[in-house]
Prior knowledge:
By secondary structure, chain A is α/β, with parallel strands linked by helices. Chain A contains 14 helices and 17 strands. Chain B is built from no helices and 32 strands.
Amino acid sequence: MDRRAFVKAGCIGSASLLMPGLDPMRRADVPPPAAPPIEVHGLPDYKPSPLGMPGLFPGRVIEVRDPNAIVRNRVSQSIVRQMLEHAMKELTEEKSAQAAWAKLVEPNDIVGIKINPSGAPACCSSPEILREIIGSVQSVGVPARNILVYDRYSYEMDIGSYQALLPPGVRIVGIQDGFVDSSGYDTNVYCAANFFGEWETRSYMANIVAQLVTKIINVPTMKDHSASGVTGCLKNLAYGTFNNVARSHRAPHSFTNPLIGLMCTVEPLRSKAVLHIMDGMRQVWHGGPLTQVQDFIDQAGILLVATDPVALDTIELEAIEEKRRERGAPSLWQHDPNSITTDNNDFYHDAAKNLFFRQPGHVAAAGKLGLGVADLKQIDHRTLSA
Amino acid sequence: MTTEAAKSKAPGDWPTLLKDNARTGGQGQHPVRSPERAVWQFRTGSSVRSAPILEDGILYVTSVNGVLHALDVVTGTSKWKFQAGGRVHSTPSLSENRILFGCDDGRVYALDRHAGSKLWEVPTGAEVWTSPVVRSGIVFFGGADARVYAVDAASGRTLWVEQLGGRVYSTIYAAEQQLYLGCGDGKVYCLDPSSGKTMWSTPTGNGIDSSPAQAGDLLLIGSEDFWFYAMNTTTGEVRWKYETGLGIASSPAVSGDLAVIGSKDGFLYALDTHSGRLRWKAAVGEVVTAPPVIGDGVVCIQAGGTFALDSATGKVVWRAALAGAVQSVPVLAGDAIYLASLSGEVYALR
Lengths: 386, 350
């Protein structure tokens, strides 16, 4: 049983019958359905923050590369420390790392660090990078008890062993224990749309985002995604904050575009997400988001930092496209019905196969919503070596 | 120091993680046959991250929603349940008439195992995911507050507290004169059970989620640095180590000179305890984080489903497409096997 099947058998059970978006067997023999209207309900009377997306530095992306940052699949704590410091100083044009962080985080903040454990253990937010982020947040005066490392699914965080590996005092929070646990969500903040006739048409925002944290540092990984093309800053925030999101794709169609961008505009998520640090230690160029197949995971040693999630995801998309070209895999933009498979095993072991028609256009669509800069010519992409 | 605590009284009893304080669930030879059918199934109503334990015909299971369930093993029906003050990830353990478990509310609870009523609770500084271990009337456990606690089993009075350098998610192995555990700071610690003072510590290359086992004069434990270590129990010196493909959150099972450990790379590794030489490795899923147990000629493990492998060759003897788990362990009780799944089901197979 592979991990996708494990998740389905172990966690969803009969719930999959109630969530048509999870049905991988349904093939589209008809033209793709039109995107339905999506209703957005943010937190009432929330005052937007100027630090919110695209943040203090629209269009600026800092990329730091060090081939020694990951060796034999182990991430170097000391090298990622240097990479992060270097990137933060360059992003903010401050002389010290502490001053750089102080532009984004204040001592009285409750800081949520949104990780991506969904590919654990093969590709997930590295504990080594998280330790450096936590130390940096503490350096500006935020106590450990006011730092929360979180994601939606507890069991994925457990597989990543984050509970054991992060510093004492920091809270490690899984928003939900199973696929159908909705207790951790705010029913006043939601996106509503009927994509495929599903019975529950709302996706609610996590309480932790709506009510608890005051700032979010987003730590996505660098991965392709079978439905959305890539999973980067936008996807990690949107589908890691709202529940009931798998319904947006029913093989082979996906409404990740425009849902991902729209979710990121919902307050207070938009205002609270002030910094995006993409963990590109490992770069998944096929099989994302859950693959464990090492053949499609490069040990790239990259760290990308921005306040603008659209600009950063645009750079990520280019990088994954380039890698796929190098390896002879079809473009993420390809919509060839012959590439679609319903067999997970085919998908996980053949880079020419996919489960959905990918939607990498979700990044540019988010740009049109004002979340950042999607035009490569306008992106201030600075590449540094550590 | 005597060793009366957490001994199994009847062959089928399984009163603590991996059967008893010596972790003989991983060291003894318990008969296990290929199950033919599920006798009953119980739904806890929440995920189960811990392992069940068994005594006197009662199976005790904690579920993540904070409930300790006491189930009749014949019928699979609830005899009683107790709601704790937070989520529960800790495997319970039994000591005399008490059942003990840790909770995310930072407390360790002791209940009357017959009635389910609370006897005492002891506060700590953060969540407790480890399984409390009882030896000579003292309960030992570590927590996310980076501390190790010794508590009087009868009264719940704290005897000593020792601060370590990282979170503790590794269940203590309590030997007669030493306590062994791994720590989030990457070190393996040996503590004096009378004072909590560090007798030795040995660093590994990353944090430790795995719980140790002892094989003669060797302490065996995995690390998130991908290595499986064998250390001298007296000095902490590394005798040998074996590299797997990813981090190790699983805990070792030992039988004679055979040690078996799971890795997040999806393989079970069977190693010679004397030399660290690989005897076999077998794929049992894409990720393995739970501890294996060794039965009569088989190794059982819960990963994406439940597997039994020939302990001599690693070949799959039988498999059941149920009870996928992150940290749960099958209870091998003679003619029955009890399993708890991540999705919250408890099964009795015969």
